Amino acid sequence: MNEIATKLNEIIKNDNSNVYELLTDIGKNMYFPRGILFQGAEAKRKADKFNATIGIAIEEDNPMHFKQVYKYFNNLTPKEIFNYAPASGKENLRHLWYKKMIVDNPNLKGKQVSLPIVTNAITHGLSISADLFVNEGDTVLIPDKLWGNYNLIFGVRRKANIIHYPTFKGNGFNIDGLKNAIKNNENQEKMIIIFNFPNNPSGYAITEEEGKKLVSMINKFTDQGKKFVIINDDAYFGLYYEPEILKESLFSYFANLNERILAIKLDGVTKEEFLWGFRTGFFTLGSKGLTEKSYDALQQKIMGIIRGTISNCSMPSQSIVEKLISSDDYRKEQQEKFETLHNRYTEVKNTLKNSKYKEIWEPYPFNSGYFMCLKLKNINAEELRKKLLDNYGVGIIATSDSEIRIAFSCLSKDSIQDVFETIYKCAKEIK
Amino acid sequence: MNEIATKLNEIIKNDNSNVYELLTDIGKNMYFPRGILFQGAEAKRKADKFNATIGIAIEEDNPMHFKQVYKYFNNLTPKEIFNYAPASGKENLRHLWYKKMIVDNPNLKGKQVSLPIVTNAITHGLSISADLFVNEGDTVLIPDKLWGNYNLIFGVRRKANIIHYPTFKGNGFNIDGLKNAIKNNENQEKMIIIFNFPNNPSGYAITEEEGKKLVSMINKFTDQGKKFVIINDDAYFGLYYEPEILKESLFSYFANLNERILAIKLDGVTKEEFLWGFRTGFFTLGSKGLTEKSYDALQQKIMGIIRGTISNCSMPSQSIVEKLISSDDYRKEQQEKFETLHNRYTEVKNTLKNSKYKEIWEPYPFNSGYFMCLKLKNINAEELRKKLLDNYGVGIIATSDSEIRIAFSCLSKDSIQDVFETIYKCAKEIK
């Protein structure tokens, strides 16, 4: 093992040996090399005459660049566009995101967690989590309403043992289903749990009450010797349309709860700030007993993974997000967009009140996010999808043989009634 | 194994079973899911009335976005900035890059290779290569002058057996050194070879003559049952300052040479177009016997890896690179920047003619790229580096105990003589 990796492991072990034991082989072996980047950082501070360490081309104190590129930007300096960002992301952006996180998640205040590390959006955060904490054969618990990419990230790439449990029980989240899934895998000391609220594809976010029950249920299992990695995929954070919803990430509650629980929070500007093409996200972690030294050690391992897969993330995206979230109008614009989506959500809810639809479908619980799902009654979802496309020019997603997903995020409020009416009409023809 | 993966494997096996056998476990198991993305693509073509499949938010036929973000861009539509790019990259950009590749590498013309797939720059291309073709324990041959990140990508992450050979023999590339390294690992049927010309850190690119010898030397080993994956890290492509240099990628020669050789070409706009922070690169592959069907199958596996690690690459970066390389001024601006760097190179060469320097160092061969290296004579490189920083404010990189790297790419022509004089003076003080 590389000696830097050994030192990082010692630091983590000293604070919380459970967290060390949760690391994969890659996680244990990983480190951030002290070579060129380290010497370059030293030169940046001290080389006041000539700095011949930099792996870019410089012209007149700016990164060399084409006019044919710079002309596509406004109000950004060449350095904010063309330079490399650090492997862990722009320092100021990381602090800004941390502050935003505390504002949006008041229960995080005073808890000791890492500074957010910049990722190439949430998928990258998930794959870093998988590299660090999911060894071949490790159990990963995911509800049966899930983003399909979890299978590629945790299953195909990391060969995890993925176990699904039914997402809903009645009109709420199936806490007992998760509890049983944990119980039924008695021989697994280590378990990885993925939470994704608001959920893709169902558009369900847990209530405050459900949140409390979930946290306490999982915490109890640690007495029986279980260790957990709790990954919070907070892609749709903030898009909550009902008052009873838990309006902060479960990360707030798990972050410093128990030495046998490591919590990860994955954020993305992708859905939250409507910047799908930007590829900017954040990876934050916390566990009881970890001090700043351990967070730094874990950060170095994460930086090693980032460097060894994509080196670093987009500089123009980071510079712009930095400016966005420190701008005066940020919250105002965010609120405007929220209201637009909220209105669409309300229109879907109102449309679905029509009792004739009960013959054809039952909506799954939904209260948040971009999507909602319908459970079809004796109608094949794929058949419906094809017929809708071919005969009506209406596109929906078949998420299983009997379920369809409707993205109200991409429908104007005016069109929503029409969409559901068309689905109804087409389904009646099939039935 | 997933049934889509099985089908992809059959297609590849039918064309060239060697390529199938070169795949790793991940490579064999990998596929691109047919789920939401597939249905979404169908809806994009057919849903002319309402499309409720899209996982973004839409407002007035454009991706929803903040004014506080759009104001940082010029001459780009919201779709060119905010939309997701496909997992394989923007289609038009891929065709443009292919055309550029053929112009820059005339020997590629008429050869059957994949369309370039967009990556998050070259590191990502390397890590995709590693996921697809480097299993634990596989032998990877890398010269001893190397970019340190290869160790993280192939060693720490993929647990490859990395073997180094001396980069230089006399004033040229050590073809015999590589030949011996291949010979000495007789029991390894499969070998991965990484070529990086112009080389980081040495700034050496092979000559036409060396290129011919290299290709024929490696090709001969296939008669003895060897199979090769040849990864061409073409990060510094085009920055050639001497007439005898081979001015195209070795990929041109390996791409369709032999059924037992799979060649990969990794490009990045990072160094080549001076867009370090953009994170845009290209992954192209070729082998004898592969038809379009196999290239499509391999592309689906690569798309699966991309989707399972970062989902997709920056949209604004891709849109801007697309516009850049199709602009009239692209080649003109590229030539201007090339000349600036060429002048710095010439200044380094002229400076080093001073015979007094022979007492202190011997330069390694260099003729291209951003960097050059000095072999120090009985002076500790780290001691020199520290003293130079602390006493002279000059930053250099110590690449080993007795070697330093100087990045002339980031020095103005005027400062170059001064930099070497200062290093000389400081080294004399130590000696």
Task: Give your account of this protein's structure.
2 copies of one chain form a homodimer. With 431 residues, the first copy, chain A, is α/β, with parallel strands linked by helices. Chain A folds into 2 domains: 3-32 and 87-325, Type I PLP-dependent aspartate aminotransferase-like (Major domain) (Aspartate Aminotransferase, domain 2); 331-430, Aspartate Aminotransferase, domain 1. In chain A, 45% of the residues lie in helices and 16% in strands. Chain A has 18 helices and 17 strands. Chain A has a 7-stranded mixed β-sheet with strand order 4-12-11-10-9-5-6, sandwiched between helices. In chain A, strands 13-14-17-16 form a 4-stranded antiparallel β-sheet, covered by helices on one side. In chain A, helix 1 runs antiparallel to helix 14, helix 16 (330-351) packs parallel to helix 18 and helix 17 crosses helix 18 (413-430). The first copy, chain A, is globular and about 75 Å long. The mean pLDDT of chain A is 97. Chains A and B meet through helix 4, strand 1, strand 2, helix 5 and helix 8 of A and helix 4, strand 1, strand 2, helix 5 and helix 8 of B. Strand 15 (394-395) of chain A pairs parallel with strand 1 (50-51) of chain B.
